[in-house]
Fold these 3 entries.
Entry 1:
Amino acid sequence: MVRVPALPLSSSQKQARLLGILLILSFLTYAFFLNPDWRSPSWAFPDLLNVVGIPCLFCGGTRATHFILHGEFQRALYFNWIAFPALVAAVSLVLVMSLEIGRRRALLPSVRLRTSQWVALGALAALLWGHHVYDALYSPKPELLNREGLLFSFSSSTAQGETSK
């Protein structure tokens, strides 16, 4: 196994890590204190759900994180199972960045992905997103659907046509 030497952190790298830690902890604090029954107005977050009516890959993720942090794992799974690995990754990232700042050295080498790796990640994201949309349409999960969206009527009529066969 090849060991990558730990390089000293520059001041800009230290600032980037501090900002990353701050952003992750801010999100976790927001998710912890979130009222999960709160409904945002459709203009508040211009995401895929509000524009086209079907959920994005991360729709329900904040509520799922809220329920994980409160120990309600079944409810977290209902909203978005991706919150589980995302939370583990976020906490791990905060720990690594904190260690890097404390030791003043980079612990992980910078990673550059090849085009084929980006394509594979994109395909995986598309597959997961397709499953999330399918789950929202067929479960049904009304919190993850916007009946006024552009594609909702098309996707729901397709779903009804398949169930009537």
Entry 2:
Amino acid sequence: MYISAKVDYGVRAMCTVAAADGAVTSEALARAQGLPPKFLEAILNDLRRGGLLTSQRGADGGYRLARAAEQINVADVIRQIDGPLAEVRGLRPEAATYEGAAEQLQAVWVAVRASLRSVLEGVTIADIASGELPLSVTRLTDDPDAWLSR
């Protein structure tokens, strides 16, 4: 899975907003996470339009989560910023069809999406911001092989 800079920055911003007391300006978010301010502003606008953030202008202005951090998972952020978790040539995995020796490839792509969902829908912004990841995730990261690139 390719995780774009937009998604990485968006999740980092959401976690920072979740950990804050009150509204957080885009400038403060950029500083806190070392992110490019203009690029971050575009990401925050996407998250606001998608109903994950709210914004307020003025002296007490800034960004807030649109709902509790426990109700926003990583998959929500990814879908808002980059679209579906898994696509095959621009199609949903269940819409991709194959013939002959490759016929079972569709099932592989559907399984990949299900695997992504199990992690990304199971981890909330609150989990990350609090440092308390679900056991299902820590079990995966406890395996030393998980940390090896191939």
Entry 3:
Amino acid sequence: MHEIRINTSGDKAGCYRELLPQIRSLIEGEPDMTADLANVAAALKEAFGFFWVGFYLVKNAVGTDGGKELVLGPFQGPVACTRIGYGRGVCGSAWKSGKSIVVEDVEKFPGHIACSSLSRSEVVVPLIVRGRDVVGVLDIDSAEVGTFDEVDRQFLEELCGIICRIIWECEK
């Protein structure tokens, strides 16, 4: 049994520093990707109280010959968009560029896909395997404008590196 323990009175960076080793411990030794990603989403939502936390995974697109799309994976929060095209919205843009995107106000992001009108800011971090292949994205939404910054980007990129090494690169 695992419990996530975070001293929420500390600063954001301190919370991430406490959380990352706990998440690593949570997913090490568990061979099921769905279980691992579900627990990561739950740990992030529990630790920070984000509006929505989840994963979109690159999969074969429905009804196409070899096309790919992001498909909803494990998440915590309200019902979400199920499929996102390459380069579409914040998630599709992070997939296409292979770079994290921090959006202070989603209303100002060109082509933002509004899965929920309550989402006001967002951070999306690609899951990159072997330094080049994007296999999915971590998507986190807040109900407040300006929630995410470089601290979030830095620590979430570190977290996604841990996830990719353990789940896709078989570091277990």
